[in-house]
Fold this protein.
Amino acid sequence: MITTSGLTKIYRAHRSSGREVTALDGVDLHVREGEVYGVIGQSGAGKSSLIRCVNLLERPTAGTVTVAGRDLTALAGRGPRAGRELRQARSRIGMVFQHFNLLSSRTVQDNVELPLEILGKSGKERSRKALELLDLVGLADKAKSYPAQLSGGQKQRVGIARALAGDPKVLLSDEATSALDPETTRSILQLLRDLNRQLGLTVLLITHEMDVVKQICDSAALMDRGRIVESGTVSDLLATPGSELASALFPVGGEASGDDRTVLDVTFHGDSATQPVISQLSRTYNIDISILGAAIDTVGGLQVGRMRIELPGRYEDNVVPIGFLREQGLQLDVLDREQPVLVKEAAK
Ligand SMILES: Nc1ncnc2c1ncn2[C@@H]1O[C@H](COP(=O)(O)OP(=O)(O)OP(=O)(O)O)[C@@H](O)[C@H]1O
Ligand SMILES: [Mg+2]
């Protein structure tokens, strides 16, 4: 549904200084139709640049952007006819912002009607559509209110209704919940999930919060310094040993009790249980196994369990027991002393 290929954005900070910032460095992104796709990364990673390039709010320096089969980059800056086509294509892409971007002098209903005015719809049609959308986001009774009379969560619902006015196939969201408290965040994410399911809407969302990815994303990508360093469906990521995103999505705590120890993260999906395997391991090799941490959670709608265990001795001493665990079909991550930054952050 959304494909970027070699997407590059270089900002020229000051014309005179000639200093350049490479915000996107050859990004290949593929968002499938009907999925909720989360892009996560630290501040300055290039997330907003990515989303602004996807709807051509920002002109990419190089690379292509295709949305719903149309190459938007080919339309940009190619004369009036292509310009019209680009505007039309963009009206099928809804955008939700962190700070809502509502017009304070307009009522809720008039805010939602704004994109319809731009599309040249009649007054009657606009009002019918706006009321229908307000009903969809649970704000039917606020049509005549002004933004200042709404809570943050309600404002974001108006922002979402407005984004849906052009019947988009794709919704882009840049930190839509960053200004909201956790409870309201959950309800807005649930709304996005419901819209995704009800309307078959493809959602590309940008966030720096792992919980957002955990709650609603089918797929995720990790961005770092303008590049996508990891991506995939949440279930594939969780099944990938050493995946930084997976450990951040699902951190288990627990520190090694000494230098001469081997620490393993064991991941199991669905109903598979580790308990018998662990006690078998202990009996077979006559070793004491400590459980440092364990958790079961729902990630992207899937039940996943993770257990951090400690074996006496260094890695070299434990090659055979580790082989035994792998043979039982368990997913294992051998922990290095040096953990990736993202994991440490999420575990805090
Ligand atoms: N209009 C601009 N002009 C110059 N540099 C910019 C511009 N917009 C962004 N940048 C730079 O590009 C890099 C990526 O910025 P971007 O806003 O895409 O990051 P981000 O991942 O969205 O960060 P945050 O989580 O803080 O929103 C940063 O180094 C930023 O300073
Ligand atoms: Mg940003």
